[in-house]
Amino acid sequence: MSPSPAPTAPRPPLRVALAGIGVVGGGVVRLLETNRDLIARRAGRPIEIVAVSARDRHKDRGIDLSPYRWEDDMGALVAADDVDVVVEMVGGADGPALTLARQTLAAGKALVTANKAMLAHHGLSLAQLAEEKDTPLKYEAAVAGGIPVIKAIREGASANAIARVYGILNGTCNYILTLMEREGASFADALTAAQAEGYAEADPSFDVDGIDAAHKLSILAALCFGTKLDIDTVATTGIRNLIAADIREAEALGHRVRLIGMAERDASGLYQKVQPCLVPADHPLAYVPGALNAVVAEGNFVGRLFFEGAGAGAGPTASAIVADIIDIARDEYGPAFAMPVEALDQAPAADAGARVGKHYVRLVVEDRIGVLAEIATAMRDAGVSIESFIQRGDEEGGGVVIALVTHEGPARAIDAALDTLAASDHVVGAPMHMPILAL
Amino acid sequence: MSPSPAPTAPRPPLRVALAGIGVVGGGVVRLLETNRDLIARRAGRPIEIVAVSARDRHKDRGIDLSPYRWEDDMGALVAADDVDVVVEMVGGADGPALTLARQTLAAGKALVTANKAMLAHHGLSLAQLAEEKDTPLKYEAAVAGGIPVIKAIREGASANAIARVYGILNGTCNYILTLMEREGASFADALTAAQAEGYAEADPSFDVDGIDAAHKLSILAALCFGTKLDIDTVATTGIRNLIAADIREAEALGHRVRLIGMAERDASGLYQKVQPCLVPADHPLAYVPGALNAVVAEGNFVGRLFFEGAGAGAGPTASAIVADIIDIARDEYGPAFAMPVEALDQAPAADAGARVGKHYVRLVVEDRIGVLAEIATAMRDAGVSIESFIQRGDEEGGGVVIALVTHEGPARAIDAALDTLAASDHVVGAPMHMPILAL
User: Fold this and answer.
1) Per the CB < 8 Å rule, is A287 touching B289?
2) Is B354 helix (H, G, I), strand (E, B) or coil?
3) What structural domains and CATH numbers belong to chain A?
4) pLDDT band at residue A424, thresholds of 50, 70 and 90?
5) pLDDT tens string A201-253
6) Which of B301, B321, B324, B333 to probe the A interface (max A CBs under 10 A)?
């Protein structure tokens, strides 16, 4: 037998600086303290916080930051000789977060960030900079919180051509939809409840209008399809226009309503869309409750992979951030988007109108003679074939609710029919339509 | 701005040899051919099969192996100068697979294996050898097929102390249970159907007796808890003793029956058990249908992570094997069980009898006076408190079916009561009990 090799010298600690100590930053501090020994065993070296920076030194954060050097100026974290990794938890697509990220990478230090807005808008240039400096850019926490979905796709599914990636990427919306489902609540009431329980912000637009999900989707799409990040072509419809009847009718049809971000690369280009969808009851996304997130990736060899977990919160987000730090400690990292930026394709936006599927359509109409004929005519003229039609006489949103399900057809035909109907004097408010998720 | 660094030289191809070309081996060949260019972009270098070896050169495998050098002797794959990675798909805990694995690592070459039996029995010594030689030992395909759960736990959840890991680790059993559920079939009929459809082997014992799941569980436990692999202390109960009434009663109680492998490290030691359980309808494991696998890991910061996908089959298994190869191509690998073997704890087996929970108990009894009193007395004498008791008069298995659910109590009390009842002349066959999965 060959003799054992001489024991290698223990590796020096990995030295981390935290920028922005809010809820997530506090979680990272607590995690690194609580699981300190375990992490050192797994990482092969200790991970030490050496410095922290935030706006207000004297704010009560419920954690003791006194063991760590305080810097009023975040730039000092980058400049410090004893910092190997900067964790950006400042937030915002531009401004101080972006400046810090660029400084960190330019200095050849590792950057860990949870900032999906910054990545969606500047991920490519940051990845380019990281490559030039041969330094890690890691962002597990930016998509689906604690679920290690970036790793699962970047590495776990790396052998596959991915056909589609989609999921529930915003916990606030899913919480609201679950409330509407369980309690028959209106959107407004469910939003108010979500705000009272801390699941939605005072200004909820970032979440309920689908912007946050769009940021995450653009990151997933780049990773799955080897395309350049393109947030500008993500079409986004939020959940504000849902009414209680939509949830009820979906249920009657054997479906649940979920805000789904979906990306697919088809012959025409890259399709990226965030919108409420009807999810069939035999799809696992139909069972994702409350503020959880879930992501589905469909690979050409592995088939359908499904990942579910907490999409936000101090603990889960800290878990993802520290997983990134451990990867860095292990020297297990590579190009941010799985391949060098120059190897990423520039894909045009797909022709979304040509996508074929079944749709749920809901209109609120005045209860008068001729309205049904008007709807049927608009559908026929646009070439939309109707599979089922439901008018229960339910009143909501200032009129009578009519719901229908179309046969398979191009999205463009639905849009044309709804444009016609939206202009009708007998239709109240904006028509709603949701694709039915194809299995 | 700093100038771009000089372009680095392209990395040489990673050269792979395949040992054992059955269904999975064929899948690996097809995958590496089909996704060749994509994989090269993601891996940063081409991945090339250079040699293959299997028992019968002339067997029709439906794939063209002529581009690859054939070796009758697997050992030649290890000896060849042009092989960097050996993929072991021979199977079996010992024998030729183990010899090949040891030779590969001893030669300082990378080993990729899907062989859970070999890892469960020899994983520690193989990991030790890999460390001594500083060469990768990767085994994503050994647990839960295409689901990248080894990576998700080893790296994605690496920041967490894991409280419990559990899941559906055998697709054959889940397929049978799903058939019993959907069609009210007996175990025997469902097994026959599964065999006819290729989901179960002619000799199904390895799957239906829980041995395969036990192998996988022992690997997950080592990875989650930083303990030395210990297959010998995995207690295993398969699904043979389930009757149709069990599935029906579980459903009536709002549960589904699943074969669950669960590991937990408690104060007394390491608990590892494979057994049928009642899974509550609001747990995602209740919705895992057919031959799918699913794994749950509960981390102290991330909370509950849930992963689902195909647990077997050529495509999914090849996906996992090639993901390992891509990691090796990227030089992203570390100790097989997340930390060096010498850092793994030797945990004693936990006191399984002390575990507290609710149980489902089912007996088949002779329909005569006094049987109920006998059951109630045995339960009382053992200190088991009964929450609900069901006797619908259904006959199955040569008698009348009685099902009951206990209040929370130690497993040891249930065992004692059932030992008493098993000895009764009025109880037909072995009593069945299943823990109710606690959320």
Assistant:
1) no
2) helix
3) 14-142 (3.40.50.720), 149-310+337-352 (3.30.360.10), 354-435 (3.30.70.260)
4) very high
5) 999 999 999 999 999 999 999 999 999 999 999 999 999 999 999 999 999 99
6) B301
